[in-house]
Amino acid sequence: MLITKIEPQQNHERVNVYIDGKFAFGLMEEIKYKFGLREGMEIDRDFIEEVLLEEESLKAKNVALRFLAYRKRSKKEILDKLKDKGFDQAIIENTLDYLEGYNLIDDYDYAVSFVNDRINLKKYGPHRIKFELARRGISQEIIEKVLTEDDEYPRALELAKKRLNYYRGDDRDKIYRKLSGYLQRRGYSYQCISKVLKELIE
Asked: How far apart are alpha carbons 60 and 13 in whole angstroms?
């Protein structure tokens, strides 16, 4: 088989490759240079498969890097993103290895940042934080490490005091139920909620 023509696409970062006079595939310029593709070059099917595999690997890395550009991501979030884009498992695993090799994904570091954000900005309780971390594929071991010293009570008390303003005019039992439900949804423990309610209502 002979490469008879290589022409740029409208997207100048990609080229069209023609083999034996017929369009064969599109490629990134980067891959063309990596494999030294040129017009008049003799190639075989094994070589084409190697080139296309490298193209797919580079695509997966670019998708992952763009996804990471906005904020930190867990390993599972990257995996799910690549699956959604249709990459096969071997490509996904190689991409994850590449990202970990350059410290671009680190579930422990991600969890620390996530916990700080949810505590300081959203005032979530530990139960909700644990649930959200687990949903993002963070291991139980890491979750326990990053939440070992979480003192939820001051945060819950602050939230509850602000929330009381919404319940003016309600009777004591209704306030108790509403405030309890609100703090549960924010992820606070039963013991913490009981302590807060005792201080503010009883």
From this structure: 16
Which residues have C-beta within 8 Å of that of residue 118, sequence separation ≥ 6?
124, 128, 129, 132
- In a 13 Å sphere around the CA of 28, the CA atoms on its Cβ side amount to 14
Tracing tokens 């070992």 back to the chain, one arrives at: 148
- Assess contact for 17 and 25: CB atoms under 8 A: yes
Distances (CA, A) of 34 to 17, 29, 58, 95, 201: 15, 9, 12, 18, 70
d(CA 92, CA 173): 54
pLDDT digits (tens, 9 = 90+) for 9-58: 887 889 999 999 999 999 999 999 999 998 999 989 999 999 999 999 99
